[in-house]
Prior knowledge:
The protein is α+β, with helices and mostly antiparallel strands. The chain has one domain (2-109). Helix content is 42%, strand content 19%. The protein has a four-stranded mixed sheet, with helices on one face. The longest helix has 22 residues, at 82-103.
Amino acid sequence: MKINILGTEYEIKRQTAKENCKLDDASGICEVYSKEIIIDTSAKDDKMAFNKIDDFFHKVLRHEGFHAIFAEAGASQYMEDETLVDMLAMLYPRIKVIMEQLDNAEIESI
């Protein structure tokens, strides 16, 4: 699957840590030079994994997506800030609701 991130096409790939050693300590990685977001799907078969594994995978995708957004925006100092990236990935569903409310606000009533 491909996704457009600020005008740059990234490919989303599914791999396991056995297939990609960069996934040894990570649930996903953003390869900004090859324009790939790679998600470790090993947990899908792990009986001890999260109950809502698809929700977890979406959070990982959002996390890696924010790395790509910062990279493509030229904000590399934020691209490597795992705390900021993780916070945005976790809060994005709530931020989206807020932004939709703001987009739908009637300016005349303000």
